[in-house]
Amino acid sequence: MALLRSYGADRVVTGSCHLLELDNGLKILVDCGMFQGAEEEWNFDDFGFDPSEVDILLLTHAHLDHVGRIPKLVKEGFRGRIYATCATFELAYVVLLDSAHLMEEDYRTRYKKALRRGKEKSVKAPLYSVEDVENVRLLPTEYVKYGKSVGIGKGVRAVFRDAGHILGSSFIELSFKEKGRKKRVVFSGDLGNRHEIVMPKSKKSMKADALLIESTYGDRNHKSLRQSVKEFKKIVRKTLLGGGNVIIPSFAIERTQDILCLLKEMYLNRELPECRVFLDSPMAIRATNIFNRYHDSLSERCREFYERDGDVFGFRGLIFTGSVEDSKRINSYEKGAIIIAGSGMCTGGRILHHFKHQIWNRKNAVIFVGFQAYGTIGRKIVEGADSIKLYHEKVRVKASIHTINGFSAHADQRQLLEWMRAFRDLGDIYIVHGEYDKQKVFKRVIKERMGKKAKIVERGKSYYL
Ligand SMILES: [Zn+2]
Predict the structure, then answer these.
(1) Ligand 1 centroid from CA 84, angstroms
(2) Which one of 88, 263, 283, 385 has the fewest beta carbons within 10 angstroms of its own beta carbon?
(3) Considering the chain, what is the average pLDDT of its residues?
(4) How many Å is the Cα radius of gyration of the chain?
(5) Residues 313-324 as b or e (16 or more Cβ within 10 Å = b)
């Protein structure tokens, strides 16, 4: 029987890494993500399996918590073939390079500090380097198309279908024969919120003997999108008309493009007051250019924008500030600017520099459009801090602070259930990719609403599918 073991995203959200071993000896890894936040230290642990024995790596999408440990996997001996959509490969490269640069930078700072204390030997080397990322690109890769069945070896076939989560995101159906009988295992990856700002709705699957389902929002439903969009537009208009600037800390992939899309819609509907919109993040600029190139895979609204202008996101007043000089020049705008910058949780990046120049001014507004983890500057501001410490300087928080939660890229409880109900034939359900308390709620809801007993996957435990 097929044997499943998870080595990440088990009772936690991050570190997605699921190993499937088939009777015919094929070892298939689905995702190899990084642990983030409180689990970050786990990245340095052993995988729990021998990377050199893995034959195939399938990638659901390019978020760091699904691809972030691939360079480590390769460093430790993986030489197999990687399958993913073309957009996932492109975005993953951007994400991995950014992650390697950040880790190298962080290492250099820690090393310098430790050197002054004579403790440089105790400084842990980064998880991987830029060179390790380049080594991933030397491995054999196969670009898959949505809905097309591909042979991945030893009679096993894989179909990737649009998960509607981020550009290139997929859920994966694996089929193989076991004792003369056809078996299907489905990995949901992350499933998209069906709000269709940038991403279209996820597709549905037909049959699965076993399903691994994500559960990020398994315990609740999102606020209505319409309400969130209304709120967003209102704050933007009020701040700009009141002579202030709008600062939006944003994640480079998907959320930034959602925001650009909404601003373009405002511009086209003449709802956007005269202003400049700065996309001030090299990574978000790279990601936006990739989204633009794959305009055919985006929502209907984005495809219409492309048809109209030959560019999904561009409109008069939108400026990409790639260089540091251009970024610094934004400081001279005392009013009439919308600044979108990373990092999304304000743990680093250009957003801190904008906070320093803008957050003390009561005419300005900060709009949080994504989750702020405990311990981050973003969280402190959201929770009402009077002042924050930026570059060793105490800065008063006088700008108005707003949190808009309706833009999530994940399906909520109702959407997850709806997606599962669409299966014509659904066997065992395995819950992954979620916080344990939320998974318990989701498990109970699956039992109540679908009459099915789901299992919450545990690290390293063997499940015979
Ligand atoms: Zn994701």
Answers:
(1) 14
(2) 385
(3) 95
(4) 23
(5) bbbebbebbeee
